[in-house]
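Internal ticket #5521
Category: modeling
Description: The requester needs a full-assembly model to guide mutagenesis choices. All entity lines are attached below as received. Residue total reported by intake: 1008.
Assigned to: D.W.
Attached entities:
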Amino acid sequence: MSKPTDLVQGTLDLLILKTIALEPMHGWAVAQRIRQVSKEVLQVNQGALYPALHRLEHGGWIKAKWGESDAKRRAKFYSLTAAGRKRLEQEEANWRRLSAAIVLVLEPA
Amino acid sequence: MAPIMRCIQEVHLWVRSLLRKSRVERELAEEFDFHLEKLIDQKIADGMDPREARYAALREMGGLEQLKEECRDMRRVNYIETVAQDMRYALRQLRRSPGFTAVAVLSLALGAGSGTALYSVIDGAFLHPFVRGNDTSILLRAQFPHKKMSSWLLSVPEYLDILNRSHAVSNVVAQREAAIVSLSDPPHTEGVFGAPISAAAFEAAGIAPLTGRAYTREEDRPGGPHVVVIGAGLWQTRYNSDPGIVGRTVHINGEGYTVLGVMPKRYRWMGAELWFPLQLNTADEDRSHRFLFVTADLRPGMTLEDANRELRSLARSVEKEDRGATPEYAGWRMDALLVRDVIVGDLAPALFMLSGAVVLVLLITCANLGNLTLARGVARRREIAIRLVHGASRARLFRQMLTESLVLSLAGSGAGVLVAYAGLTTLVGLIPRDYIATEAVIGVNASVLLVSFAAALVIGVLIGLAAAFAVPRLDIERGLRAAGRSMTGEGLGRHFRRGLVVCEIALAVVVLAGAALMVESYDRIGALPLGFDSRNVYAMNINLPAARYAGGPQVSAFFEELVRRVDVLPGVQRAEVVSQPPMAGWDVDTHDFQIEGRPVETGGLPNADERVVGAGYFRLMGVGLMEGRDFAGSDRAGSLPVAIVNRTMARLYWPGRNPIGARIRLGHGYSRARLLTATETDGPWLTVVGVVNDARQRPDLAREIRPEIDLPFAQSADRIRDLYLLVKTPNAAAGVLAAVRREVEALDGQISVQNFTSLDRIVADGQGPRRLAVVLLALFGGLALLLVVVGVYAVIAHNASQRTGEVGLRMAMGAAPAAVGRMIAGQGLRLGLSGVLLGVLIAAGLTRSMSSLLYGVAATDPFTFVAVSLLLIGVSLAAGYIPARRATKIDPMTALRSE
């Protein structure tokens, strides 16, 4: 089973949290949104997405609710919990620090 | 707040997944359906034909079931669920193949059962025989190289040296050996073991009396009061647990003693049931008057090595200070042994060797079951393939295999515990009582159960690993297509299985070689001349109370009359008294002696075993007279003092000469309790009147026979009140005992007969550790052999059935049935040969470790090894015979058609 090798390990959680922070979203939409926003660079494979969603749900970072999709079809919508919001802030801060550091290394002043 | 909320959600989901499984499953399916639909919609929007879009989407989604399983895995509850499911599945699988399950559980039950029973003995008799002090309680020993003797007995000054000068040990306690004393509160009289011990023993034990108190140091002085502390067992059986016992007076050897207290059940110091003050005269300055057992505790933080180092240097200082007055101090040593090591003695190596054998048998069982499981694994390939298709991960399948083997090993070990319960009494019965501390409790206890449970887990994992070996190599397509049958076995799996069988045979060689060596040693020892004839001889102990039998005349009058009466009982061939029957007990009374006209050498007087015998003893025991004359009725208290020596003594001290007429004088004695006066430095000169053949005195047959001096009872009656009556009679043992009891009662109603046993039994008990090893090793050897038969048969039969088609083809082409049979059976031979080769190499290394238990046979005895090898090769061939015969009966047409 191919894993998204182009995604840095551990960043999938961050991307999911960030994406559903805007509004509750089902799995399909999460994948689409990440692809669109990243201008087709980040492809999230369902083989990685769903286990990650289930893991996050079970860890209490996100919660799921069944609702109606645009096409009047039942879908499972995920949204952030308070703990998830907090974690998102931390992860975002971490990521910014890390990427800034990498930029510093790649382009020395 | 957030972490708590998170916890609540987690628990909620956890419970939900557990309780509402079907709903969760439905939701999972629905979520993926939704995703699939979206994917199809997208592909249609991209311009694909709807049907084509559906196929493409399905392809892209990949293994839907695997994905679901991965999501389930994300929920931790899955583990519990899987385990329960795996258990149910495992039980179903095992029920489906009752033959396999029966073989597995039975062989595990026998292996694990012997292991559990053996460990119970090791734990109860060796690791934790006492309530406390198992690893700290020590017994001191002196060794005198010039006398070629070691002594468990020390003198009062030596005891005081240790008490006052040692820093490595504390709680130094002096005591005399327990002896049978007659306990009487009329009209009831019985003999019980009583030991004189110093008051410090009760403080050292740290065990409080059940009721009353122990005696104090004040009461433990010469001239102190007659007081006694009794054991719980005696209190229960004799006094009905009457709390009013404290303060009451009982009669011990005819004298009144006040009962002070009752000690708990597991307090059995010196194996006794009552203890009275030693009342030691600490002013005794005779360093050679050794009659005390000295025990102590290692101080916290001190090891046995520390104590021994200190004792060595203490012995050197004492040697410097006192060598002049005590010549035997030249080069003497003092050391200490753990009390439990002294008691368990050479039983310990036997126990550890047997544990090794149990481990080997269990390994064989594991290999065997792994093998059978693998064979089933091949037959179950289709099932496994189906499960893989249905989304089971390999890890999950492995877990399933492991669960199955764990269920199996736990069931087997559970049955093993029952086997252990049932067999433990028999096992303990094989061990002579002397080797087990009186306070030891041997049973299947919690720590034993824990160890056997842990062993079951290890066994389960080992078998599971073997089984799982088959899984990763299986590819789904071939598994489904082959449907459990193929022309050739799985390459690697087959080699692995043959490897397992070879290992099985090799381990069986080791167990059987060990067993054969033990049997051989036991036979050789049994064939050793004892120097006496133990057949039809019975021994019993009679101890006269000092109060009514004050001196020699009374004692000899009683025993001579008793012997006269028993001698004429119907069926009795001969009766006689002796201070100690041969080969009984773990130590023998010894005496220093001086030969007239010879100077005392450096290191003091020589030392010999000593025995007091009735005039007819040598005739009763069938000990041959080599020179001079036997004792006679004319050797009386007033006549010429005489002695008889054994052949070894004559050879060592009168080499090439006849010792008859020479005179010897006894020096210091090393006597535990039996001989009353251990010191006799000014005794009379004894004239040697005879030389008898060497007869075994000590139970350890592998040891050299020591010089021995025998004294006539009639001339030693003032030194002994505690004798054994020997009766030679071909009649049933119990009848003799009853008749002798009646005679004793008729002479003195307050004297009891104790420790009735046959000499054959004493001789056999001396071989206790070896006998235990022989019986159990023979059992394990048989078990190993049986397992090998099952293992070899399973592999060859399986292989033969896999090759049915090939055999049919060969026979259709004109191969003779005999040739086909040889081809199949030849596999057994090859397996046997490789296993035996490997086994001999391992055995040659391992049997060396049991050399302390062997006698008269080398640890790598070639004859034994060849015999065991031939046996196993033969067994392997035989195990291959049935499948080979079946192969020759194959009808080529049927075989080919079934392909």
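Resolution: model delivered.
Comment from assignee: The longest strand of chain B covers residues 188-197.
Ticket closed.
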